[in-house]
Description:
Layout: E1 2-3, E2 15-20, H1 23-36, E3 42-45, E4 69-74, H2 79-95, E5 102-111, E6 121-129, E7 133-136, E8 139-142, E9 152-153, H3 157-166, E10 170-176, H4 184-193, E11 199-201, H5 204-214, E12 218-227, H6 238-262
Parallel strand pairs: 1-9, 2-4, 2-5, 3-4, 5-12, 6-10, 10-11
Antiparallel strand pairs: 5-11, 6-9, 6-12, 7-8
GO molecular function: adenosylhomocysteine nucleosidase activity; methylthioadenosine nucleosidase activity
GO biological process, one term: menaquinone biosynthetic process
Family: Belongs to the PNP/UDP phosphorylase family. Futalosine hydrolase subfamily.
Amino acid sequence: MAVEPMSGTTAPARRLLVVTAVAAERDAVAAGLAAALPPDAVATAPPLPAAVVGAGAENGQRPAAPALRATVLAGGVGPAAAAAATAAALARAQAAGDPYDLVVGAGIAGGFAPAAPVGAVAVASAITAADLGAQTPDGFVPVAELGFGTSRHLPPPRLGRAVADALAAAYGPVLTVSTVTGSAERAAELAGRHPGAVAEAMEGFGVAEAAAAAGVPVLEIRTVSNAVGPRDRAAWRIGEALAALTAAFGGLPAVLEGEAHHG
């Protein structure tokens, strides 16, 4: 069972929450947004939910209504940490009367070749918990098929497609795993169970769970540092992927503004 998007589009995004795993990703995202937005429109937060602050009500400052204000939060590694940090940020903003309009899970990721090679941008058509379920003698059974909830969230399709097109990104399912793939066999298994998958990371589903609980639309944007499969650290291009993350988020505000005009 998938959680359907709230609609084919979203309301104009005036307040954006971006959740990454670690500070290097947070800083890369913030650099891109800061290059595209007015001064004081971008705030960052450390990976401590109790210390979440953002532009606007959470830090006692209300700038003069730029078109978009963004908070970029390093929420920690893995879906549980990401969900907790996202939920805390959303709750604080809601309580302050300055809620977020859109949540984006972001960072670097492994890419499924050939759809998303190293250095590519990947945008999620679906945010899927790929290893949430049960392993049986007949294979893996997703948690939804066990009757215990959902293992997939769907971003607003028109917005997701518009972002992917504008960023020249691979567009398809992005998988969330708690254990990163380290073999060709598991990479093939995941690709077989999730046709069209473009990337694998560790936080997107947690971010999406928190956003869904708060009724806020969600996207996932990743840039590829390595291929999904056997771990070859010498082949990883983390610097290249972080630079691509900055470039992608430098282009995101224009897409959101364009969709606002069409919404």
